[in-house]
Amino acid sequence: MNLDNSIIWVGITNRFAVLLTVEQKEGITLFLTEEESEEYTSHSITRYKSRIKFEPKIGKVVYAFGRYNKISRATIPINEDYYLLLTLAKEATNVDEIIMKKVMPLIEEHKHKFVS
Predict the structure, then answer these.
(1) Which parts of the chain have pLDDT scores under 50?
(2) 7-113 has which fold?
(3) Res 6: pLDDT
(4) Would you list the DSSP string of 26-54?
(5) d(Cα 89, Cα 109) in Å, to the nearest integer?
(6) How far is residue 70's CA from residue 32's CA, in Å, rounded to a whole number?
(7) How far apart are the first and last CA of the chain?
(8) Domains of the chain: which residue ranges?
(9) What is the pTM (predicted TM-score) of this model?
(10) How far apart are CA 77 and CA 63, in angstroms?
């Protein structure tokens, strides 16, 4: 949460799309309920897994990103079994920089803690 002011929600999920932990920025009202976030997570992981079949031709997915009118969301693989989900404020314009220069180094530093 402290990596960038535009990050308003963070979740970690397993490969079964079970949200293991979530954290949100204080004072922010989320658009989705807890149940809706779980459903969205399930769809995100399903979409991510559907992209894996194209990896031999286009390369491994670094992250998947969606920009909506009110927020931006990213699904980032930690390893084969865990994923980091981010919600960013709609004002965030440098999402690739946030993910590649701030989030990915943190994932690399801590990915050894995520074991099956």
Answers:
(1) none
(2) Beta-Lactamase (3.30.450)
(3) 94
(4) TTPPPSS-HHHHHHHHHHHHHHHHHHGGG
(5) 25
(6) 11
(7) 25
(8) 7-113
(9) 0.89
(10) 7
